Amino acid sequence: MGAQLCSQADAKAPRETLRFHAEAKGAQVRLDAGRCTAHRRATFHDGIVFSQRPVAPGERVALRVLWHETGWWGGLRVGFTRLDPARLSAPSLPPFVCPDLEQQSPTWAAMLPEGGALSGDVVRFWVNRGGRLYARVNAGPRLLLRKGVLLGAPLWAVMDVYGTTKAIELLDPRASVFPSTMPWPFSDETLQPEG
Fold first, then answer.
1. pTM score of the predicted model
2. Which residues are in the NHR domain (predicted)?
3. Domains in the chain: boundaries
4. How far is CA 61 from CA 9, 122, 174, in A?
């Protein structure tokens, strides 16, 4: 069984399938019509995106890096926040999740190791019941990214499409196998213009 894009997994999902929050996003982020793909238009920052619903401890968030751009330093950052994106004003978002959003709010995020998330790579990340933030890239080892994530309140997934990471796509984390190739060539034309 191959990976399902978030729009294809809706019928089987016991919980609402993860999508990006429509309004709470960085100034440079453009979302596709299904809110499954986030693309940073310019510069290397202002690429913060959130899940549209809270994520339970142990629940995996899965994404694929669609576009990796050279010329910048650093890459994808992932984590969790207690900030409800429905209550955020997009213009008030800082340019970076690390350290800006972390310093301003109860947010725990980390950058994946340099070169750890290239085009086509599948990244899964989660927080366990002990408050540890983990990630796994493709079939690689489990990586401990952070300790001390406070549980006991809803947590939303937060991602920063930062630096060399230019575009990401949410996947169905329950899939046992993810295709090794992207479903279509990625370009600006694959995203519908915002209204």
1. 0.83
2. 17-173
3. 16-178
4. 14, 10, 9
